[in-house]
Amino acid sequence: ALTAGIVGLPNVGKSTLFNAITKAGVEAANYPFATIDPNVGMVEVPDNRLDELTKLVKPKKTVPATFEFTDIAGIVKGASKGEGLGNKFLSNIRQVDAICHVVRCFDDENITHVEGRINPLEDIEIINLELIFADLESVDKRLSRVSKIAKTKDKEAVAELAVLEKIKPVLEAGKSARSIEFADEELPIVKGLFLLTTKPVLYVANVAEDEVADADNNDYVKQVKDFAASENAEVISVCARAEEEIAELDDEDKADFLEALGIEESGLDKLIRAAYYLLGLATYFTAGEQEVRAWTFKNGMKAPECAGVIHTDFERGFIRAETVSYEDLKEHGSMPAAKEAGRVRLEGKEYIVKDGDVMLFRFNV
Ligand code: GDP
């Protein structure tokens, strides 16, 4: 499964946030095939559409889509020098699909800051520089190999060389490779380099409880936003400490707590959704009387591949999919009514599934 890794300097609130994730997380018993790794927290993806479909269909069971966060501990500073735990830190980052970078944006004299002052931009830079150094090393290694092959006019090598030469000066200037706009034909080459600073990143501004309602006007958050914009990254603000409490509440108490904080949605729900879309994930639904369920797929996937998310047999034997959009189904109230109104389509092998499609797969066994 795709996973987002949580990173940050010590004492910024990572463990607090990760605790909130595991407390809010799904019961392992409901997902018997999931691996139980203490560094992984699996949460449900909040989705109002699933609640609405449940009201319409009244199934025996409703199963939300899930998403995994990985807690990346380890020493940050000096990581790119390749010593012990630092090395592990980088190899853990290498394994995740997206990065949630927690940044301390709260003042609290009782909680020591490792650098002795609150400065979100310098904090971000400390971690990013380690990743940039590691990437620079990868790029240099590739360069020495590829530049030789490129001399033979090998087409692929020439193309890769051009990409490497585009990336290198940016890294040398202390900037992440994600700040570069690559041409479409360069993207597969970039992907093949497995760099750390091209992974999608979400900056998580950890603000004080009394700042979270108006986080956009918090000076620290503003700084983080400006920086994120410069490297095509996103920012969300949360109060990790409050999230830890919210995660233990039932729905009603949660609503009261959120109201008291002055926010509409919990920071954790925002984080889950942002990470989900950051990874290019989307949701389709199956809606039977037994079970209404949300399934995760990658944007751009075709109907057979999406069927394969449920079971490989569904992909192999795929014939077609009865498909209706969530909006149309909701408007007409039931599958037969939607059919009557001509809103249910029969889609074939080439159909690119859309977020919110409600699907019934027909397949040969
Ligand atoms: P980590 O080292 O990044 O994992 O940081 P922790 O999650 O252990 O947090 C370090 C300290 O900061 C702990 O004492 C937390 O209770 C505290 N902390 C975390 N989030 C907040 C917050 O939003 N506001 C305040 N005031 N303290 C926080």
Automatic annotation (TrEMBL):
Provide the OBG-type G domain boundaries. 2-258
Could you say which cofactors this protein requires? Mg(2+)
The molecular function terms in GO held by this entry are: ATP binding; ATP hydrolysis activity; GTP binding; metal ion binding; ribosomal large subunit binding
Known CDD domains for this protein? TGS_YchF_OLA1, YchF
Positions with a binding annotation for ATP = 11-16
GO cellular component annotations, sorted alphabetically? cytoplasm
Family (UniProt): Belongs to the TRAFAC class OBG-HflX-like GTPase superfamily. OBG GTPase family. YchF/OLA1 subfamily.
Described function = ATPase that binds to both the 70S ribosome and the 50S ribosomal subunit in a nucleotide-independent manner.
Q: Which NCBIfam families match?
A: redox-regulated ATPase YchF
Name of the protein: Ribosome-binding ATPase YchF
Q: Which gene encodes it?
A: ychF
